[in-house]
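Fold it.
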Amino acid sequence: MPQKKETQYSAPSLERGLAILDYLARHPGGKGQVEIAQALKCPVSSVFRITLTLEKSGWLERDSETKVFRHTQKMLMLGQQALSESDLIGCALPIMRQLRDELGDTILIGVLNGAEIIVLEQALGSQLFRFSVNAGHRIKVHCSAPGKAILAYLSEAQSNKVIEQIEFKRFNENTITTPKDFLKALKEVKAIGYAEDKGEEYAGIYCVGSTVFDRTGFPVASIWVTGPDIRVTPDMIPGIGEKMRKGALRISKRMGYDLKSEE
């Protein structure tokens, strides 16, 4: 009996829609319709229709002032669900809460997206004055503990690709403003096992974080503690960093990471 030939189907609008989503995932700061059309070499009219449809469906949002499109939290949640065979948040939250109880300040977990970290979840601090953000909040890689923690364990090619996307904007005198200084900071992270943000974007806020690895050893996420810096002194940071490092490794173990590589 002759085999049936597979019918070749094509859905140009769907293909363009997926290409737009993929393109914007690599440009988390957002892009306008003309920029998208030029980058993807497709008609502006098609990009106009597709982006408005994706916006209406909740997959994209458009900035009212700049008119650029970017992914919404709906896309974040979809990515979060498919992030790992193991449930990253389910693995992390119990340990995040334990760290919160030990340290008193808010513990967060986030993943890398382009040149930014996207917050996935938090365990709110027990202090009266505590740090809090919504899921989906974006943090610059070059001036954050989680950004340094993840990039420190990427391959050289992967980290260089991210660094090329970074706009080394100066927020204050503590901000890292050159690729050379940033690479130096990444080497320090690997040497001591944790990353620190010394109020590099927001003065008066401290962050200390470490890396979460999946079963393949890939730096899939970072957890970090954050709060007002009046609650910590420089001599306390190594101890906090060690707690975060051990907590991150416990989450990594739950994700299937082989802790023998740390011995």
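Residues 237-254 form the longest helix (18 residues).
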